[in-house]
Predict the 3D structure of the following.
Amino acid sequence: MFDTPQYPRKTREFHNHHMDSTIWNRFAFRPDDVIVSTYAKSGTTWTQQIVGQILFQGDPDVRVADISPWLDLRLPTEEEKFALLDAQTHRRFIKTHLPLDAFVYRPEIKHIYIARDGRDIAWSMFNHASNFVPEFYDILNSVPGRVGPPLEHPEADVVAFFRRWLDQDGAPFWSLWENVRTWWEGRHLPNMLMLHFADMKRDLPGTIRKVAAFLEVELSDEAFERAVLHSSFDWMKANAEKAAPLGGTIFQGGAATFINKGSNGRWQELLTDADVAAYEARALAELGAECAGWLAGGGEIAPPQAAAA
Ligand code: A3P
């Protein structure tokens, strides 16, 4: 995937019921754009909120739901998304769920990748898909150009959902492994910041400082305190319509359904030892020990020389 001398190169397009990677081929990047990337259900919106709070100095009225689109989602139309972004005079921050080898990587642009344990993702994804309003399934599945099967309502049981998701490489969504693996390969690029949901929960103020430094934005002490408050789970849950995709209108129960629990490990009481062993064996086989360990719990990533040693 890596071009000479070192940059990731797009090697393929990526399509499914949600996504169309080709939009990035036509997108007019600006050098100060910020890309927020995850597999999905990994803290994307949380990170968009953090970035929005940093760029707007802790302004409580910033609505990332309105200003930070998921570009590769087939909705709304390309024209609408491009018009929104073209009109923005502030620093733009844009979300993607593409694997890095299907993304148009630009070395001058800053990328933030967020990971989360796949079992937590599956739990979050089950809540997400179970709560789409029926009209959203209709709208999504009738978008022209869809590739592959339509998205169907998930099974009623979260464990059954998890088992199919693991056995069928992310079904009914997409592969976790190729997403994590490709972005992990880019972890040492200077314009790449790798975050983990577990670390964000352990130290939100530290995460905000790290992201602000990465984006080269100075925050006053007051702005920093506001940014921490407005990125907390409780504040985001209470103001969920400002951050949730499409303002949360696509979820039964609205945006607060999307900002659901914000906790990890909810699978521990429900998965059997065999389920856990199957997940961990697959993660190891797909990602290798170092990346699988990071995906499970976050923590510092070894610098390049240590990784190579
Ligand atoms: P749960 O469904 O486990 O509660 P994404 O934005 O990638 O779809 O991720 C959604 C997940 O991030 C949801 O997890 C949501 O609750 C969680 N989340 C959003 N904001 C959060 C915050 N401020 N603190 C902790 N978790 C948050």
